[in-house]
Write a structure and sequence with these properties.
484 residues; alpha/beta; single chain; globular; binds S-adenosylmethionine; nine-stranded parallel sheet
C-alpha cells in the first residue's frame, strides 16, 4: 500500500481515514494503556464542566480515546463508565429516543459476506413493498405508537432506484391513521450521488445513516467482493456527498465483529473528526451494531466478534470522545445488553422491531425475509414500560428536526444546556400521547405518575406550567402534537 498522508480535512478517504495514523494510534494506545497519569488526564478532559449556563464537554481525539479503550485497569474502566453516564445526562438528560426500522426491499446487487441480502443468496425470498404495502406497514407501526422510522433497503438500481425510495418516503409521511403520524423518516440506504442526496433532503428526511461496516480498506474489499459497495472510497466519502447535497444530519456506524475493534474504533472517531473539520458539524448519530446470526450467516465465521464487556467499553468510550452525538442501539442486542448500555451513553433505541420486508403487517413475526435475528423481541409497550422502570423517559419527540434545529444548530442547542427546558418537556408530551393512544393499562398508569414526577424537574416555571396544561389537554381534550 502506498503511504498516504493523514489529513482530517482531505476529501479523500485514504487521507482522512489513514491506515498509518490508525496503526500509530493503536501502537501509542498499547504503549500507554497502563500510564495512569495520562489516563487520568484524558478522563478528566472528557468530564462535563460548567461554564456559566453552558455545560461543556471537550470530547477526545481518536488517540486519547484509543488509550482509554486499550486500558484494562478495572477502576479506570468504572470511572470511564461513570463519566459516560454524566455526559449523557448533561447533554441528553434521562430521555431515550425511540424508533423502528422499516424494511422496504431486500433486493440487492452487492455481495456483502455478512448480510443475507447478498445476491448469491438464492434461498431468501426477495420482496419489495408496493405503496399499498408501505401504507399497511406504516399503519401497523402507527398503531404501535411509533412516530420516527429508519427506512432500510438493499442496493439495487433496477428494483430499488432512488425514485422508489422517494415515493416510499412520500407515502410514509402521507399516512395519518387515527391519531397516528410519522414525523421523522431517517434513511439507511447505500452510498449514492450528491444529486440523489439532494432529492432525499427535499423529500424531508431526518438523518442519512450509512454504516461504514469496517474502516480497514483491505478487510472492507474482501467483505464486499462484488457490487458497487466494493468501492471503499465511494462508500467512505458518502457522508461528504450527503452534506454537499444539503443533508445536515448524518449517522455513522461500524458493524462490530467484522474486523479489529480497536482499528474500527479509531477509524470511526477519525471519521467524526473529519466531518467536524470539513463541515463544521460532527455525526448526528453513531450506531453500534454487532454482526448477528441471519439466514445463511453465522457470526462465528467472523473471528473478530467482541464480548459484551468490550462492547460496553467501546460504547462508553464513544460517548466520552463524541459527547454531543446520539448513540443508537438496536434490537440486535438483548434486553440485558441494552439495559447496561443505556447507562453508558446510549440515547436512542429501537423497539418492537421487525427486520423482514412487510413484517409489521403480519400478525406473527415472519422469519423468511429477516435481515438478522432480533434478540430483543419485546413489544414496543414492554420497551416503554421497561425504560420508565429504569428511570429513562421514553421519547417519541421529533421537535428539533421539525423546528429546524439540525446540523450545527442542533449541536449548539445541545451544548447550551436548554435540554431541561425544551427537550425534557417535549419528550414528556410525546410520552403522554403514547400513553393516551396506545399504552396497555398498566403502562399508562405507571406513565401518568412518571410524567407528573418528571414535569417537576423543568426549571423554568412558565415552561413547566405550559407543559402541564398541554399534558392535560392531551389526556382530556384529545389534543396532539405540542412542542417547544
Ligand atoms: N444496503 C444499505 C447499505 O449498503 O449500506 C444499508 C441497509 S442494510 C439493510 C443496514 C445495515 O445492516 C448494514 O449497513 C449492515 O451494517 C447491517 N447488517 C447486515 N447484515 C447484518 C448481520 N448479519 N447482523 C447485523 N447487522 C447486519
Amino acid at each position: 500500500m502506498t503511504d498516504k498522508r493523514y489529513d482530517p480535512k482531505s476529501l479523500k478517504a485514504e487521507e482522512f481515514i489513514n491506515d498509518k495514523e490508525i496503526r500509530d494510534t493503536l501502537k501509542y494506545a498499547e504503549e500507554n494503556k497502563n500510564n495512569i497519569e495520562l489516563i487520568d488526564s484524558i478522563i478528566d478532559k472528557a468530564r462535563p464542566k460548567k461554564n456559566g449556563n453552558e455545560t461543556v464537554c471537550a470530547g477526545l481525539t481518536h488517540r486519547e480515546a484509543s488509550v482509554l479503550l486499550a486500558c484494562d485497569i478495572p477502576e479506570k474502566i468504572e470511572e470511564i463508565y461513570r463519566v459516560a453516564e454524566e455526559i449523557k445526562l448533561a447533554y441528553y438528560g434521562n430521555r431515550i429516543v425511540i424508533f423502528a426500522p422499516l424494511y422496504l426491499s431486500n433486493y440487492c446487487v452487492n455481495g456483502c459476506l455478512y448480510c443475507p441480502y447478498h445476491n448469491q443468496n438464492k434461498d431468501i425470498p426477495r420482496k419489495k413493498l408496493t405503496q399499498d404495502e408501505v401504507r399497511a406497514e406504516v399503519i401497523a407501526l402507527q398503531d404501535m405508537g411509533h412516530k420516527r422510522l429508519a427506512i432500510e433497503s438493499g442496493e439495487d438500481p433496477v428494483n430499488n432506484p432512488i425514485e422508489y425510495i422517494l415515493e416510499c418516503i412520500d407515502t410514509i409521511y402521507s399516512v395519518h391513521h387515527k391519531n397516528g403520524d410519522i414525523r421523522r423518516v431517517n434513511v439507511n440506504i447505500a452510498a449514492t450521488t450528491v444529486e440523489n442526496y439532494r432529492k432525499l433532503k427535499d423529500a424531508g428526511i431526518g438523518t442519512y445513516i450509512l454504516f461504514q461496516e469496517t474502516y480497514h480498506k483491505e478487510g472492507y474489499e474482501k467483505l464486499h467482493p462484488t457490487g458497487p459497495k466494493h468501492n471503499y472510497a465511494y462508500h467512505t466519502e458518502a457522508m461528504d456527498r450527503a452534506m454537499e447535497g444539503g443533508i445536515d444530519d448524518v449517522g455513522l456506524g461500524v458493524l462490530f465483529g467484522l474486523d479489529m475493534y480497536r482499528y474500527e474504533f479509531a477509524g470511526l472517531l477519525m471519521h467524526a473528526e473529519h466531518l467536524e473539520a470539513v463541515h463544521g458539524v460532527g455525526p448526528h448519530t453513531i450506531s453500534v451494531p454487532r454482526v448477528k446470526r441471519a439466514a445463511d450467516i453465522d457470526p462465528s465465521d467472523f473471528d473478530n466478534s467482541i464480548s459484551d464487556e468490550m462492547f460496553a467499553k467501546i460504547t462508553a468510550c464513544i460517548r466520552l470522545a463524541v459527547p454531543y452525538t446520539g448513540i443508537i442501539i438496536s434490537t440486535r442486542e438483548s434486553e440485558q445488553v441494552r439495559e447496561k448500555l443505556l447507562r453508558l451513553g446510549v440515547s436512542q433505541v429501537s423497539g418492537g422491531s421487525r427486520t423482514s420486508v412487510g413484517g409489521y403487517a403480519e400478525a406473527e413475526r415472519p422469519h423468511d425475509t429477516e435481515q438478522f435475528d432480533v434478540s430483543d423481541q419485546r413489544t414496543l409497550d414492554e420497551v416503554v414500560s421497561w425504560l420508565m422502570d429504569n428511570g429513562h423517559i421514553p421519547s417519541f419527540c421529533t421537535a428539533c428536526y421539525r423546528e429546524g434545529r439540525t446540523g450545527d444548530r442542533f449541536m449548539s442547542f445541545c451544548k447550551s444546556g436548554q435540554i431541561l427546558n425544551f427537550c425534557h418537556p417535549n419528550a414528556l408530551m410525546t410520552l403522554a400521547e403514547y400513553l393516551a393512544d396506545y399504552a396497555e393499562p398498566d403502562t399508562k398508569e405507571k406513565g401518568v405518575r412518571f410524567i407528573e414526577r418528571e414535569l417537576e424537574r423543568v426549571p423554568k416555571e412558565n415552561v413547566k406550567e405550559i407543559a402541564k396544561q398541554n399534558v392535560r389537554d392531551i389526556f382530556e381534550a384529545g389534543r396532539r402534537d405540542f412542542r417547544f
